[in-house]
Amino acid sequence: MKLHLLSLLSSIVVVGASWTKNINYRSPSEHYPSLGISIRKVVKRNDPQSPWDPTKLNFTHGVASGDPYPDSVILWTRVGPSSDNDKSNVTVSGYVQLFDHDNEKFVSVSKAPVCVEYKIASDKQLSNVADSGKVYTSSDVDYTVKIEAKNLEPYTTYYYQFNVCNSNNTSPLGRTKTSPKADDDITKVGIAVYSCSNYPFGFFNAYGNAVRKDSVDYVVHLGDYIYEYANGDYGWGQSIGRVPLPDKEIISLYDYRKRLATYRTDLDLIASHQNFPWIPVWDDHEVADNVYRDGTSHMNNTEESFIEDGGVVFDQRKMNAVRAYFEWMPIRQVEMDDNLRIWRSFSIGKLFDLIMLDTRNYDRSITDLYWNTDYIHTISDDAGRSLMGPRQEYWFYDALSKSAERGATWRLVGSQIIFSRINESAAYGDENPFDYDAWDGYTSNRNRTLSHLYNNGIGNNIFLAGDSHASWVSDLVWLGEKSYDKETGEGSIGVEFAGSAVTSPCPYGANISLAQANNYSTWLQNANDELQWQDLYYRGYYELHISKDEVQASYFGMPTVVSRNGWEISLANFTVKSGANKLQRPVGGGVVEGGSLKGGKTVQTNATLDTGNGTWFVSYADLAVL
Ligand SMILES: *[C@@H]1O[C@H](CO)[C@@H](O)[C@H](O)[C@H]1NC(C)=O
Ligand SMILES: *[C@@H]1O[C@H](CO)[C@@H](O)[C@H](O)[C@H]1NC(C)=O
Ligand SMILES: *[C@@H]1O[C@H](CO)[C@@H](O)[C@H](O)[C@H]1NC(C)=O
Ligand SMILES: *[C@@H]1O[C@H](CO)[C@@H](O)[C@H](O)[C@H]1NC(C)=O
Ligand SMILES: *[C@@H]1O[C@H](CO)[C@@H](O)[C@H](O)[C@H]1NC(C)=O
Ligand SMILES: *[C@@H]1O[C@H](CO)[C@@H](O)[C@H](O)[C@H]1NC(C)=O
Ligand SMILES: *[C@@H]1O[C@H](CO)[C@@H](O)[C@H](O)[C@H]1NC(C)=O
Ligand SMILES: *[C@@H]1O[C@H](CO)[C@@H](O)[C@H](O)[C@H]1NC(C)=O
Ligand SMILES: *[C@@H]1O[C@H](CO)[C@@H](O)[C@H](O)[C@H]1NC(C)=O
Ligand SMILES: *[C@@H]1O[C@H](CO)[C@@H](O)[C@H](O)[C@H]1NC(C)=O
Ligand SMILES: CC(=O)N[C@H]1CO[C@H](CO)[C@@H](O)[C@@H]1O
């Protein structure tokens, strides 16, 4: 081992275990170590001569996979001497502080590296091995392991497992799936689309339900995977036994790691990561509420906020969040030196391209921070405003064109925030009737997108959104520019499917009654021509089943998230036919089970359910118990 150390320093490739194959050592800034991690210093600090006793190490947070390509996929795990996260933001000189629960005191532990082996195979017994390797992890990357498994076959299911080197200390077995090759003629792909999972507001049953049904190929997450708040500021944590740690607004690198680690103890989230490859992007709360390029609602980028927030400037806080996110999420960093770049795209056979945007952190112009709503309203139509910045915008329009040119049937656009114009004056008042933190605050960026689609004749566009904690299904229209018939859908250029939250509360009141929620839904549906279905009441998710002829969307509502359970209600189904560029009429088949449907009915049938604590009332009959 000692012999390897020198060559390792120069070439950073090891014959035994590799540092750099653990991508987290190169992230978030490979060639500027001062912005990320200096592998040279890590190697110096971590002495492979004194390896860990394998029995002292644990796989603390399961396994995960993501960002599938036709021949490779990202695999993730965490293995360390403690489930607690690294506190090296305050410790120095190569030692990390751990709490010894038996003796009730902090102890200093040498930063020896942990050696981990991985194996990926086409069978559950892991005998047909496609790729394997050996990497290091250490406290420098919070004991996370992220590798790219290679040499894989397209659109194939694989199983994978990690183990501590030379031992039988293994991780759980994970399952994943590569993507099809761009020119593959695949017939059908299913994705589950999630957003807004707030730990202290409930159990992540929605993640588990797609696992229990085994109904999709991939999971797409549109952000708000964690929330930065102190429990007391936002959530019911204590009353349902889910206090997010650390129990304060998160700011330091340790804080963000700890928060991610707390979320990753939810059993349904663990199950989803273990069974499906994920394709996630962040929204605001992975950093902080209503974040944009230069600040957030709780933190201006000023000297005052620096003093108030314990001496951490906004830029540092953002980098803490971003580094912890890349450590913990099973995703690729497409440009290792562009540490904020998360926008990227996937070609899923000839069927579709999935374009994942970052409308938050990369280069967003100032947003609604609550004290400046009038001002943002005034400038919302300013041509210079952008959600993405010029670099990403150019890439976005180009990706739409290239997708059409290559003949992909569909274009799916993963936006965080709602694209369609939504008049919400019933809740916000007539002065500022829109959500200026969504695309409604950036109308020129929206116009440039629509103009690119209309002027280049690019059709079959399916926009996906999260962020709002409610469900919104709309024809994709350019109001004020192109005529649109809300009865037939003529004039639109696609469809927007915006989904509710995994647990985050209804935006019209956390404990709103069903009657009140439906009343608001009816108002919203009537006030917005292109909004064909709206539901505020249910927490949940939706699935898209994509084939050459049509995209089918199924929306699911969770009857309750205050306990862990596998119940769900089929709320509504929608079809988009290829070439139609609008929702199939009658929309939703004319009948839905929740919310408000334009020109259709909402039929709610009462039912009761045995919850194990006596009988509990739910509103609808066709409830699945998974
Ligand atoms: C590792 O996991 C085992 C079994 O869950 C547990 O008993 C042990 O305390 C854990 N060790 C550490 C260092 O966390
Ligand atoms: C792993 O387990 C097998 C079977 O129980 C045993 O034969 C082998 O010695 C173990 N290997 C190590 C490194 O502990
Ligand atoms: C940010 O600055 C604005 C304008 O000065 C002020 O109204 C607001 O309270 C500040 N917010 C914070 C969190 O400091
Ligand atoms: C966007 O398009 C609409 C409809 O043509 C128009 O009314 C509005 O002024 C445009 N806004 C910007 C900023 O281009
Ligand atoms: C809303 O419901 C939650 C969970 O039952 C409860 O903890 C909380 O106190 C309720 N809030 C209000 C304002 O009633
Ligand atoms: C429904 O909303 C209307 C306003 O749109 C209001 O007048 C009415 O009282 C509401 N009804 C209920 C049951 O909340
Ligand atoms: C919003 O909808 C209400 C009710 O239909 C309407 O009175 C109002 O003029 C609308 N606001 C805008 C800006 O379109
Ligand atoms: C949606 O479709 C599924 C499968 O066909 C069906 O079981 C369910 O009842 C439908 N839901 C609604 C609300 O129509
Ligand atoms: C369902 O239950 C609610 C609440 O008890 C009641 O108001 C409603 O009339 C019931 N609906 C039907 C169709 O029985
Ligand atoms: C039943 O109630 C008890 C006490 O409130 C709670 O701990 C338990 O989780 C509940 N069980 C279910 C299935 O909700
Ligand atoms: C500067 C800073 O935020 N330091 C934090 C580093 O992590 C420890 C561990 O919890 C915190 O106590 C410090 O506040």
From TrEMBL:
Pfam families hit by this protein: PhoD, PhoD_N
Signal peptide span: 1-17
Transmembrane segments: none
tRNA processing recorded as keyword: no
Keyword Aminoacyl-tRNA synthetase in annotation: no
Listed CDD domains: MPP_PhoD
Keywords: Signal
Domain Phospholipase D N-terminal, residue spans: 61-178
Domain PhoD-like phosphatase metallophosphatase residues, every copy: 192-555
InterPro entries: Metallo-depent_PP-like, PhoD-like_MPP, PhoD-like_sf, PhoD_N, Phospholipid_Metab_Enz
Protein name in UniProt: Phosphodiesterase/alkaline phosphatase D
Organism lineage: Eukaryota, Fungi, Dikarya, Ascomycota, Pezizomycotina
